[in-house]
Structures are given as structure tokens and as C-alpha cells.
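USER: If only I could read C-alpha cells as easily as an amino acid sequence. It would mean a lot if you studied the pair and described how this chain folds. Here is the record:
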Amino acid sequence: MNTKQTPLSPDLLRNMNACWRAANYLAVGQIYLYDNPLLKESLKLEHVKPRLLGHWAPRLAKTSSTCT
């Protein structure tokens, strides 16, 4: 078993961070918004869900598995 570990390159860390941020942005959009998740138009009250229903854990699990 090889226990020698090397640090991740700055480029890989930057890409992983970008993926993590994008996945979280999309997850938040799916949880809180009916429409306009990419904010192509100004955010309006009718885009936002009036109350949150359901269980969010599957979305969070999907976010963490997307970037690994």
C-alpha cells in the first residue's frame, strides 16, 4: 500500500472549487425558485417558491457527488 500523498495542483483545486460552486448554485435554484434559475431576467417575487416543501438531502448528496 502506497501511503505517499502529493498535494493537489492549484489548477485542479480551482476547477474543483468552480464545480462545487456551480453545483451549489444550481441546487439552491432548484430548492428556492420556480423559474429563472440562471437569472436571465431580473429576479421577481413570482420566481420564488412561497414555501419550501420536501426533503433537501438528496439534492445536497447530488451536489457533493457531482464534483468528485
Observations:
- The radius of gyration is 17 Å.
- The chain is about 50% helix and 0% strand.
- The mean pLDDT is 81.
